[in-house]
Amino acid sequence: MIIIINGSLGVGKTSVAEQLQCKFDKSVHLDGDAIGDVHPFVIYDDARIRHLYRTLALLIGFHQKFNYHNFVINYVFESAESLNELLTLLTPLDLSIHTYLLTCKEEEQARRIKLRSYGDCQWELSRFVTLKEIQKQAANHGFIGKEVDTTHLTLKETAETIWNDIFNTQAA
After folding, report:
1. Total-model pTM
2. CB-based contacts of 28: which residues, under 8 Å, 6+ apart?
3. Closest C-alpha to 98, from 13, 167, 19
4. Which of 157, 123, 140, 150 is closest to 23 using CA atoms?
5. What is the CATH number of the domain that holds 135?
6. Domain total in the chain
7. How far apart are CA 34 and CA 94, in angstroms?
8. Which domain holds residue 112?
9. What is the pLDDT of residues 8-29, one digit of tens each?
Protein backbone atom coordinates (compact mmCIF):
# COMPACT_ATOMS: atom_id res chain seq x y z
CA MET A 1 0.00 0.00 0.00
CA ILE A 2 1.14 3.53 -0.77
CA ILE A 3 -0.35 6.54 1.01
CA ILE A 4 0.41 9.96 -0.44
CA ILE A 5 -0.05 13.03 1.76
CA ASN A 6 -0.40 16.29 -0.16
CA GLY A 7 -0.99 19.81 1.15
CA SER A 8 0.47 23.26 1.27
CA LEU A 9 3.44 24.30 3.34
CA GLY A 10 2.94 24.02 7.11
CA VAL A 11 -0.34 22.09 7.03
CA GLY A 12 1.21 19.05 8.76
CA LYS A 13 2.10 16.66 5.91
CA THR A 14 5.34 15.36 7.41
CA SER A 15 3.98 14.97 10.93
CA VAL A 16 0.84 13.17 9.72
CA ALA A 17 2.96 10.92 7.49
CA GLU A 18 5.09 10.00 10.51
CA GLN A 19 1.93 9.18 12.50
CA LEU A 20 0.63 6.99 9.67
CA GLN A 21 3.93 5.19 9.26
CA CYS A 22 3.79 4.11 12.91
CA LYS A 23 0.36 2.52 12.40
CA PHE A 24 1.86 -0.18 10.17
CA ASP A 25 3.87 -3.10 11.51
CA LYS A 26 6.50 -2.55 8.84
CA SER A 27 6.62 0.55 6.64
CA VAL A 28 8.74 3.26 5.06
CA HIS A 29 8.19 7.02 5.23
CA LEU A 30 9.48 8.89 2.17
CA ASP A 31 9.60 12.65 2.66
CA GLY A 32 9.57 14.22 -0.81
CA ASP A 33 11.06 17.47 0.47
CA ALA A 34 14.02 15.68 2.06
CA ILE A 35 14.58 13.27 -0.83
CA GLY A 36 14.27 16.07 -3.38
CA ASP A 37 16.48 18.52 -1.47
CA VAL A 38 19.06 19.35 -4.11
CA HIS A 39 21.36 22.33 -4.55
CA PRO A 40 20.74 24.53 -6.31
CA PHE A 41 17.03 24.22 -5.58
CA VAL A 42 14.60 25.77 -8.03
CA ILE A 43 10.92 25.40 -7.11
CA TYR A 44 9.59 25.09 -10.64
CA ASP A 45 12.21 22.87 -12.25
CA ASP A 46 10.48 20.05 -14.15
CA ALA A 47 13.71 18.04 -14.44
CA ARG A 48 14.21 18.18 -10.65
CA ILE A 49 10.63 17.08 -10.03
CA ARG A 50 10.87 14.19 -12.54
CA HIS A 51 14.13 13.14 -10.88
CA LEU A 52 12.41 13.18 -7.46
CA TYR A 53 9.51 11.04 -8.71
CA ARG A 54 11.84 8.49 -10.30
CA THR A 55 13.86 8.40 -7.07
CA LEU A 56 10.71 7.75 -5.03
CA ALA A 57 9.75 4.89 -7.38
CA LEU A 58 13.27 3.43 -7.17
CA LEU A 59 13.26 3.62 -3.38
CA ILE A 60 9.89 1.88 -3.16
CA GLY A 61 11.09 -0.86 -5.53
CA PHE A 62 14.26 -1.28 -3.47
CA HIS A 63 12.39 -1.49 -0.15
CA GLN A 64 9.89 -3.96 -1.60
CA LYS A 65 12.77 -6.38 -2.27
CA PHE A 66 13.35 -6.37 1.50
CA ASN A 67 9.69 -7.09 2.31
CA TYR A 68 8.52 -3.55 2.97
CA HIS A 69 5.12 -3.15 1.38
CA ASN A 70 3.64 -0.10 3.09
CA PHE A 71 4.82 3.38 2.17
CA VAL A 72 3.83 6.87 3.22
CA ILE A 73 4.95 9.73 0.97
CA ASN A 74 4.50 13.39 1.79
CA TYR A 75 5.04 16.13 -0.77
CA VAL A 76 3.41 19.25 -2.25
CA PHE A 77 1.61 18.45 -5.52
CA GLU A 78 0.44 21.62 -7.23
CA SER A 79 -1.48 19.99 -10.08
CA ALA A 80 -3.30 16.82 -11.02
CA GLU A 81 -0.79 16.37 -13.85
CA SER A 82 2.14 16.43 -11.43
CA LEU A 83 0.48 13.92 -9.11
CA ASN A 84 -0.44 11.71 -12.07
CA GLU A 85 3.17 11.71 -13.22
CA LEU A 86 4.16 10.15 -9.90
CA LEU A 87 1.16 7.79 -9.87
CA THR A 88 2.15 6.51 -13.33
CA LEU A 89 5.54 5.49 -11.90
CA LEU A 90 4.09 3.98 -8.71
CA THR A 91 1.11 2.03 -10.07
CA PRO A 92 3.26 -0.82 -11.48
CA LEU A 93 4.77 -1.19 -7.98
CA ASP A 94 1.50 -1.26 -6.03
CA LEU A 95 -2.11 -0.90 -7.15
CA SER A 96 -3.28 0.15 -3.68
CA ILE A 97 -2.49 3.88 -3.68
CA HIS A 98 -4.42 6.38 -1.55
CA THR A 99 -3.92 10.12 -1.92
CA TYR A 100 -5.01 12.76 0.58
CA LEU A 101 -4.96 16.56 0.47
CA LEU A 102 -4.56 18.12 3.91
CA THR A 103 -6.19 21.51 4.26
CA CYS A 104 -6.57 23.93 7.13
CA LYS A 105 -8.04 27.35 7.81
CA GLU A 106 -5.46 30.04 7.07
CA GLU A 107 -5.32 31.38 10.64
CA GLU A 108 -4.59 27.93 12.05
CA GLN A 109 -2.02 27.15 9.36
CA ALA A 110 -0.21 30.44 10.03
CA ARG A 111 -0.19 29.59 13.74
CA ARG A 112 1.34 26.18 13.01
CA ILE A 113 4.03 27.71 10.79
CA LYS A 114 4.95 30.25 13.48
CA LEU A 115 5.16 27.48 16.10
CA ARG A 116 7.55 25.34 14.06
CA SER A 117 9.68 28.15 12.60
CA TYR A 118 13.03 29.25 13.86
CA GLY A 119 13.56 32.93 13.22
CA ASP A 120 12.10 34.72 10.20
CA CYS A 121 9.15 32.79 8.77
CA GLN A 122 7.82 35.51 6.45
CA TRP A 123 8.63 33.54 3.30
CA GLU A 124 6.78 30.47 4.65
CA LEU A 125 3.81 32.59 5.70
CA SER A 126 3.46 34.09 2.23
CA ARG A 127 4.28 30.83 0.41
CA PHE A 128 1.60 28.77 2.17
CA VAL A 129 -1.08 31.24 1.08
CA THR A 130 0.14 31.01 -2.52
CA LEU A 131 0.23 27.19 -2.36
CA LYS A 132 -3.25 26.99 -0.86
CA GLU A 133 -4.62 29.00 -3.79
CA ILE A 134 -2.68 26.94 -6.36
CA GLN A 135 -3.95 23.72 -4.82
CA LYS A 136 -7.51 25.02 -4.57
CA GLN A 137 -7.48 25.80 -8.29
CA ALA A 138 -5.82 22.44 -9.07
CA ALA A 139 -8.51 20.58 -7.09
CA ASN A 140 -11.14 22.31 -9.22
CA HIS A 141 -9.49 20.95 -12.37
CA GLY A 142 -8.48 17.44 -11.30
CA PHE A 143 -7.75 15.07 -8.44
CA ILE A 144 -4.92 16.05 -6.11
CA GLY A 145 -6.11 14.04 -3.13
CA LYS A 146 -9.15 13.38 -1.00
CA GLU A 147 -9.52 16.43 1.21
CA VAL A 148 -9.04 16.18 4.96
CA ASP A 149 -9.60 19.45 6.84
CA THR A 150 -7.13 19.38 9.74
CA THR A 151 -8.17 22.70 11.29
CA HIS A 152 -9.66 21.15 14.43
CA LEU A 153 -7.77 17.84 14.38
CA THR A 154 -4.61 16.83 16.17
CA LEU A 155 -1.91 15.04 14.19
CA LYS A 156 -3.03 11.74 15.70
CA GLU A 157 -6.69 12.43 14.83
CA THR A 158 -5.75 13.37 11.26
CA ALA A 159 -3.78 10.13 10.84
CA GLU A 160 -6.66 8.17 12.35
CA THR A 161 -9.14 9.83 9.96
CA ILE A 162 -7.01 8.81 6.97
CA TRP A 163 -6.39 5.31 8.35
CA ASN A 164 -10.12 4.74 8.93
CA ASP A 165 -10.96 6.07 5.47
CA ILE A 166 -8.53 3.66 3.82
CA PHE A 167 -9.58 0.59 5.73
CA ASN A 168 -13.33 1.37 5.69
CA THR A 169 -13.04 1.92 1.90
CA GLN A 170 -11.22 -1.39 1.44
CA ALA A 171 -13.79 -3.28 3.53
CA ALA A 172 -16.70 -1.87 1.53
Report:
1. 0.93
2. 21, 59, 60, 63, 68, 70, 71, 72
3. 167
4. 157
5. 3.40.50.300
6. 1
7. 23
8. 2-171
9. 999 999 999 999 999 999 999 9
